[in-house]
Each structure stands twice: as structure tokens, then as C-alpha cells.
Amino acid sequence: MTILDYSIIITYLMGVVLVGILVQRRAQAGIDAYFLGNRKLPWWALGASGMASNLDVSGTMINTAFIFALGASGFFIELRGGVTLIMAFLMVFMGKWNRRAQVMTMAEWMHFRFGKGLQGDVARIIAAISSIILTIAMITYFAIGSGKFIGEFLGIPAFWGMSSQFWAATLMIFLAMIYTVTSGLYGVVWTDVFQGILIFGTIIYVCILSLTKFSLPDSFMVSIPLRDGTFQTVQTTLRAWTSVIPKWHLNLPAESSYSIYNLFGIAILFYLFKVVLEGSGGTGSYMLQRYLAARSDRETGLLSLFWTFLLAFRWPFIAAIAIMGVSMGVHGNVISDPEKVLPIVVNDLVPMGLKGMLIAGLMAAAMSTFDSTVNAGAAYWVKDIYQAYLKPDASKKQLMRHSRGASIIIVLAGLFFTVFIKNINEIWGWITMSIGAGLFIPLVGRWYWWRLNGWGFAIGTVVGMIAGVLQKLLFPNAPEYISFVFASALSLIGMVIGTYLAPATEKSVLEEFYKRTRPFGFWGSIKNVLPATTQNAVNIENKRDRISLLFAVPWQVVLFLTMMMIIMRRWDEFAWLLTLLVFLSVGLYYSWYRHLSAKVNINEGGSTAE
Fold it and tell me: pTM, whole model, 2 decimals?
């Protein structure tokens, strides 16, 4: 790092804080402005902000680790969450379903679905608490990854018993908190747009650098992590490493922490099954917040499409960094820790000046993830606990004070738990395959099963959360599919038992929910509240959405892989992937995109979703 590099980074940090401060006045109107931008933010800004928030440093480091160690096949491991395949579901129908509720948070949505009686209250409180817990886990994940990355460059010493990584993460978080706390979603979105431009420039530069300066031999060595914290080098070939067709079985050493992926074909099928269930249940946190802030059904589709397109550029960037990391091993020592490939490549292979730009871009990615997560998480305390139950008559000033205070407390809790987590994959695997698995079964049931009531949702969620924690404590090294099945199965049992131990939700509540949301699934007589002509229109819309999903899911996967094959120079695989991408794009256009402008009635009075 030179003075020029530090100057670029300092200029970036000052710029992003300035952008946040400039828009803070817009966020002072109340919590609707603070958390949703008064639903007046343009779709392209929401989409660009979503992309910047998804492209976090922690995720980029773990994804690069998998590509470095396993080649193109490593992409398929991240179907579990890192590919963000849930975007296909949000693009086609989940985004508009959520927006139609016109609520601020997923917890507030529980009143819309289960009513404002006791069962609705219990479901709302449990949803808020579980969302706050998951937000804290995500802050921990963010802090570990950003600390590992930034700690490589800033040279912050360890003191007060805390590592240099901890203090590097603390510095990043403090800077992001300045504009997140002061300007809410306005600050989050517009700083994300600013940071997204920097991120995009960084991606283009690294991809060009990899294509023009680095090539790999026919055979080379990579490294894989072992369970005892050490690493082992293994040999692979260029053709095998760049092959986009995954093997059914991997021959990784049993002592490797990646050996849980040896049954690779089964793992991929399992991840796809998990994604389908998870996508069908919707999302929460900052991703959901973008849809609740959207201005219309049409704009939920447009922001999703833009968001997904921008995310596609993440994978050639990851592939480029992995290639550069492998190249270092060809000409010297193999990088031992795959999770440190990203910072080592940036530190050793990027020239002066451009290094500062690249680090600033990756800091932007880290901060955009953090600010979105914190802003969305704080809303659950302010809207769903403090205002809803502790102080319903709270003034605007009190609500704003709690919004800022909740943000700070959530961050401090997330930093505290970094002391107990060893690596990025450990916390990410637990979030996606254990605690996440314990939460999403009730999230799926709420859309498609009319009989699910608030008690069933609450009990299923609590049991799932407890199962996720017990798994971490009792068998932390279990294969991910075991963790997933354990948590989700117990959650399902709890949900069904809780549902049938209590009466169904009031019919009037269910009818209002269905009139406005129009989901497909098991809705029995509830659906009959709509006139026959409207029922027919709903059936047509639902059928079209289901068909569109068959195009959207493979379209997103193929789009990402096609982009990655350019950097890996596998022109044979690029050719057939591009052909498939064109076919899927045409199908998606006719089944989904050309219908985006159609207005959808959401109640018998004739008002529309647009």
C-alpha cells in the first residue's frame, strides 16, 4: 500500500459518507421514510442497491475459495445461498406478492396474514425476534469476512485482547454506521448506487487484468482446508478445473473440511431442492425491504431483472481472482488458505494506485451489505416490538431515536459473536443450512396453506430456531444436509402440531389476504370470495407465473455460468451455454416480461396493484 492507494481509499470513504449525509434530511420525515424511503425510490436505484448489498466481501471470499479449490464446480456449492437463486422467485411472483401487503416489515405482514388477534400478535413477535437474531448472525458473518480482507491491508495491530481482523471490521462498521444511522434507507440506497459504480469498475478492471495477463498450465496445484485448521495441496488439470459440468462424486480427503461435498451430485440436488422451497417462501431482511419499498408490481419485476443482471458480473470477477490466485501457485508457493485468496491476490498482483481503487471497491461491497442488513434489522425492533406493543403512542422523535439505537445495539451484538467463529464458511453454512432451515418451513406454509394459523407459524419458527442452535452445539461438524433435515423436519412437525392445536385464522382475515395477494396453493373456499371473472384472471396469472419460473431459475444459473466461462476461456462450454441462455431468455420474455405492464386488481372495488 502506497500513499496514492491510501489517498484513493480515504477519498472514497469521505465521498460515501458525504452522499449519506446529503440525503439524511429526507429520512427525518418518519419511520416510513427512514425504513422504506416513502416508497418513492426508483426501481433502478433499488435494483442497483440490492446488487451492491449482495456483493459482500465475506461472500466473495468464500465463493472465491470454492472456485480456487474446486474450479468451476465450486459454483454449484453456492446454490445453497451464494448464487442468490431466490432472485428468480422474487422476479416472477414473490416480489409482487410481498409488495401488495403494503407493510413495512415481514413481521408486520403477520397481522395481514393472521389477523390482529392473539395468534397474529404471537406470530408477529416471533417473526420480529427471529429476524433480529438472523440479522445479528449476518453482521457476524460480515464482520469476519471484511475483517479478514481489510486486515490484510491496513496494518491495524491487535490490542486489548482483540485481533487485528476484529479492529479492521470495527473500523468498517463505524464508517458505515455514520450514514446508515443518520439517513436510513435513503442513505443506504443512494450510497449503494454510488458504491455500485465503484464496484462495477473494479469488476471490469480485474476481469481485463485476468484475461490479458494471466493464463494457467495444463496441470497445477491448489489447496484445500483440513478440519484441524491446516491445509493440503492437491493436483488438478486445467480442463477438469474449468469444466462447468459437475461430477457426481468428488475425491477429496476425508480429513478435509470440504469432504462434506464428496457426494457432490446429491449435494447439488439437495441445494436445488432447498432453493425451491426457500424461494417459494420468500425472503426477509434487506432483500424484502427493497420490494416493500417498490412503487408498483411492475417495478418489483424490473428491479429484480436489473438486480439479477448486475449480480451476473460477480462470477467472472470471482473466477478472475481465482485464476490469478492459482497462477501465483504456479510461479511460487500455493496459497494455503482458500479464504485468503482474494486479499492475497489484491495485495500481490495489483499495481500501485489501481490497488487502492480495487480495495475501495471491495470496501464498498462490504459496507453496502452491512448498511442494508442493519437498516432492515432495526425496523423489526422499532415497528414490530417498540411501536406495536411497548409504546403505541410513541412520537416521531422517539421512534427515530429507537431506530438509531436499535441499529447500534444490533451491530455491537454481531461484533461480539465474531470472537466465537473460526471462519467464513462456518458461519455462512450455519446461516444457510441450519438456522435458516429452521426458519423457512413456516415461511413457505404461510403463502400456500390456508389452514396455517399464527400459532402454527410461531411454534414452527421457535422449534426450528432451537433446532438450529442445538445442531451447532451438539454436532457442529455434521454434513449440511443432515443439519438442514434436522432443523427443517422439527420445524415442520412443530408447525403442523401448533396449527391443529388452535382454531383456524378468521375467514374474513383470510379472504382479505387472498383478495390482495392472490397466491397459488391450497386455498379452498377462501378463493371463492372473488367474482368468477376475477378468479379466472387470477388463475391465468398464477399459471403464467409457474411457467415463467421454469424459465427463470435455469436462466439465472446459465447467465452466471456463461459469464464465468468467458474468464475461464472455455469457449466450447461458453457456446452451448450462450445458446441455452438465448432460448431461456426468449421463453422468459413471452411468459413473463411482456406481461409486466398488465394491471392486476387486488380487491373487488377495482383498485389496482400499480
Answer: 0.84
